[in-house]
Design goal:
The protein is of the alpha+beta class. It folds into two domains: 2-117, D-amino Acid Aminotransferase, Chain A, domain 1, CATH 3.30.470.10; 123-282, D-amino Acid Aminotransferase, Chain A, domain 2 (Alpha-Beta Barrel), CATH 3.20.10.10. It has helices at 22-26, 44-57, 66-79, 123-128, 151-162, 205-217, 228-232, 268-289, and strands at 2-5, 8-11, 29-37, 40-41, 85-92, 110-117, 130-136, 167-172, 175-179, 183-188, 191-194, 221-223, 236-241, 245-252, 255-256. Strands 7, 8, 9, 10, 11, 12, 13, 14 and 15 form a nine-stranded mixed beta sheet that branches. Strands 2-1-6-5-3-4 form a six-stranded antiparallel beta sheet, with helices on both faces. The two termini are 30 Å apart.
């Protein structure tokens, strides 16, 4: 596979950074993950804007313009052997000659990107939904930034793996925030509920698409704080991300999601939203070809 590192395209196995790179030493950097369908990046402008927001939030000047980033992404996509891809971008504050927490002066940022096959949920996961667990959200106070310092998320994700589950849903002060690597939606009495964008959660690109599609197709929705009690009493739960797309959660902490004979099964609103999501990215691809 081909990678991009500091202005050069080279085999991924040959891409090397200094052990003094601040991304390695301090997690001092930001990143993005961009899904690609049939070699067409999905919501590229939105991903690049979120990258800019992250870099602004950590006071790291963006080393490339939006046009330059697009050229890098499209070049990597064109070089890959697979059609559906996941492009990873990372920008760190670079490698100084010493280890010091303060920002270095006159050090160029490290810019790295590569693409890999897009891994989406299996047909079995689509059909049966996934199991998740919950845990207290103990992360820092700027979860709206897509920073590379992800140890807390890694530990949450491993909690899910250890429990034989796909994700950990996080709760802070009695309210839903997000998943370890996803946004979470709740359906209650035919209304789609989404936690508000603030410093406690990452503003997901797929999160935005879901709300746009709900508005387009007349699905009732509310954006507001969601209490833990509402999460546990939900008729449906969904997780969304660039790679998971829209995926039903059917078990939470060992208990089936939903009520009656439909408990523990993907609900009708999740199926409807996934169909709309697939049709939407197909529509975007057709517009790109026009």
């Amino acid at each position: 596979m081909t990678a991009f590192l500091n202005g050069q395209y080279l085999p991924l196995a040959e891409a090397k950074i200094s052990p003094l790179d601040r991304g390695f030493l301090f997690g001092d950097g930001g990143y993005e993950v961009i899904p690609v369908y049939s070699r067409r990046p999905f919501r590229l402008d939105e991903h690049l804007r979120r990258l800019q927001t992250t870099l602004d939030g950590i006071r790291l000047p963006n080393p490339h313009s939006a046009a330059e980033w697009k050229d890098i992404v499209l070049h990597l996509v064109a070089r890959a052997d697979f059609e559906d891809q996941s492009v990873y971008i990372e920008v760190t504050r670079g490698a100084d000659t010493k280890r010091d927490q303060a920002f270095p002066v006159g050090v160029a940022p490290t810019v790295f990107a590569f693409t890999s096959p897009l891994s989406t949920p299996t047909p079995a996961q689509r059909e049966s939904g996934i199991a998740v667990i919950s845990a207290a959200d103990i992360r820092w106070g700027r979860c709206d930034l897509k920073a590379v310092a992800l140890l807390a998320n890694v530990l949450m994700r491993q909690m899910a793996v250890d429990a034989g589950c796909a994700e950990t849903i996080m709760l802070r002060d009695g309210y839903l925030t997000e998943g370890a690597a996803s946004n979470i939606f709740v359906v209650q009495d035919g209304i789609l509920l989404a936690p508000p964008k603030d410093h406690r959660m990452l503003p997901g690109i797929t999160y935005d698409v879901v709300l746009e599609l709900a508005a387009r197709h007349g699905m009732p929705y509310e954006v507001r704080p969601i209490a833990e009690s509402e999460l546990r009493a939900a008729d449906e739960l969904w997780m969304t991300s660039s790679t998971r797309e829209v995926l039903a959660i059917t078990t939470l902490d060992g208990e089936p999601v939903g009520k009656g004979t439909e408990a523990g099964k993907p609900g009708p609103m999740s199926r409807r939203m996934y169909d709309w999501y697939c049709a939407f990215h197909d529509e975007v691809s057709r517009r790109a070809d026009a």
